[in-house]
Specification:
Chain lengths: 391, 150
């Protein structure tokens, strides 16, 4: 696709986050945490909260834009969006904000996500419902109610088709956990994972074990987006947004089942990945580091194939040589620990880590990293991705 | 009235009054296995929808199928993601490739298999579980133990 007008026009100028906690551990409300993350991001950018004139969040956030704008006392809101996907919103909210500031709809847009799974609901459990409506009527009565089960069905077929083993899934979990050991903010910091512990951990939904599944967490993240032009006068060196994509492939579904999706053995980036590279005018070889949303390990393998880091069906061989591990791997991923080991703030913590990599201050900093991929929602109905660049 | 079903009562029941899907549930209630098929391009689709994803036609018919299928994928759920399943885990969830539909797949349970002996590619046959009055769930049994005839 040609005609992408946003290459090096917009950027991230501030990031903020709260402490990440296991689900249910937060003694403060998710609204409180959202306020903290946003305040920190605004301060990080060297702005005043009254400079913020746009707010964007995504599905399942309890703190709607109007509530936040009111609570924060924003004098005027010029841009407000609630993106419809869940974890797939990770890069989509940044893209949305970038488009808004580029076209002049707003000056400084904050993307945020606050999540208290203890106060709201646990994502690993069935959605509370009296009856299963629409497409859920064709899945829920079979006990097909959780993301791990839905994705597990894809992973099982993927393993069968391409001779992927539990050790290949483990490679993803081990890399993320290893990176968390260097990140004092990570929930799994101080809890190193070995292959033996991985293999002996309980099955959640065979073929996925405990350590294949993401954490359930409480916490919040926020990011300030503006134009590169405006960023020149701010205190932090901007991180450029090279390109972004959001949406889905064909028939990705809406219910937990999605068994008729096109590209069943992909992470749903199989179409947008080529758009992403074209928009940024780069190739997979140019990507130095990646933050890839993991609700489970298997979807990361499919995402690696979608983004062309290896051929279709070759992710197992790609990861078994340590490609995902900092510092020597070809493509260190989730360098803060990611959803599996840092904290699960619906993926938005991956954007913060992408920004740290481009600023050069990650706890697992990839040397001379110039381009970072951030992919949100791997395997979700709606997904998104972006390429960040060092200015 | 107690019912013998693969999963215990307590999971949300399917809402069978949805305008897009109620006709399928009416067939299911009578234990008739049909799928929606586009009258223009002949593509099968499921769950039911008003428009064909392939050609955009609104015209369709409910077409009976043989009832055979093969296991395309499966998982064994060990963690109870719903409170009603706490005493029931582990249980299986299967994806069945439905014969004669050009690759239409449905989710279900393989209800005559105990333990973890399921294999991808196993031939299965449709069966029905009456889960509440007038509401039946499409389910699957291994083909050699089914009453289905070729």
């Amino acid at each position: 696709m040609s005609g992408w007008q946003l290459k090096n026009k917009t950027c991230i100028v501030g990031i903020g986050e709260t402490q990440f906690m296991r689900w249910g551990r937060s003694t403060r409300s998710s609204f409180d945490l959202a306020c903290e993350a946003i305040s920190k991001a605004v301060a990080d950018a060297g702005l005043n909260i009254h400079d913020i004139d746009g707010l964007v969040t995504y599905a399942l956030d309890q703190n709607h834009v109007a509530k936040m704008a009111t609570g924060l006392g924003l004098p005027e809101l010029r841009y407000a969006t609630f993106w419809p996907g869940g974890g797939g919103g990770t890069a989509a909210v940044i893209m949305d904000a970038a488009m808004a500031v580029h076209c002049g709809a707003a000056n400084y847009v904050v993307c945020y996500r606050s999540l208290c799974q203890g106060q709201e609901r646990r994502f690993g459990q069935a959605k509370p419902m009296d009856v299963a409506t629409g497409e859920a009527a064709f899945t829920t009565p079979y006990g097909l109610v959780s993301p791990a089960q839905r994705l597990g069905l894809q992973v099982k077929r993927y393993m069968h088709e391409y001779h992927i083993t539990e050790r290949h899934l483990a490679a993803v979990a081990l890399a993320c956990n290893k990176h968390a050991q260097r990140n004092p903010r990570a929930l799994m910091n101080g809890k190193p994972l070995t292959l033996e512990t991985y293999l002996s951990s309980r099955m959640i939904v065979d073929p996925l074990r405990l350590y294949d599944c993401c954490l359930e967490s409480d916490g919040a993240c926020a990011i300030v987006v503006t134009t590169l032009e405006r960023a020149r006068s701010l205190k932090k060196k901007p991180v450029s947004i090279l390109a972004a994509c959001q949406g889905a492939g064909a028939r990705q579904g809406e219910a937990p089942g999605d068994v008729n999706r096109e590209g069943y053995l992909t992470a749903n980036f199989y179409k947008m990945a080529s758009d992403l590279y074209k928009r940024a005018e780069v190739t997979p070889k140019d990507v130095d580091v990646a933050q890839i949303y993991e609700s489970c390990t298997g979807m990361v393998l499919m995402a690696l194939e979608d983004f062309g880091f290896c051929g279709r069906g070759e992710a197992g061989r790609f990861v078994e040589t340590g490609a995902l591990e900092w510092p020597a791997g070809r493509l260190p991923i989730n360098t803060s620990g990611g959803n599996l080991a840092e904290g699960y703030i619906h993926g938005l913590e991956l954007v913060n880590e992408g920004v740290r990599q481009m600023r050069g201050d990650s706890t697992s900093q990839v040397q001379d990293a110039k381009i970072c991929l951030v992919a949100g929602g791997s395997g979700a109905h709606l997904v998104s991705c972006m390429l960040l660049g060092r200015e | 009235m107690s019912r013998q079903t693969y999963l215990p009562q307590g999971l949300p029941l399917p809402f069978t009054g949805d305008f897009d899907t109620r006709d399928w549930w009416a067939f299911a209630g009578r234990h008739e296995l049909v799928f929606q098929r586009c009258s223009a391009c002949r593509t099968f689709r499921h769950p039911p929808k008003p428009i064909c994803f392939n050609c955009g036609s609104f015209q369709f018919a409910w077409e009976p199928v043989s009832g055979f299928g093969t296991i395309y994928s499966f998982v064994i759920a060990h963690h109870a993601a719903h409170p009603s399943l706490k005493e029931r885990v582990p249980y299986n969830i299967v994806v069945v490739d439905v014969e004669g539909t050009n690759g239409l797949r449905v989710a279900g349970n393989l209800i005559n298999v105990v333990g973890q002996v399921i294999k991808i590619g196993t031939e299965v046959h449709a069966t029905w579980e009456d889960i509440s009055d007038g509401v039946a769930l499409l389910q699957w049994v291994t083909a050699e133990q089914s009453s289905g005839n070729r």
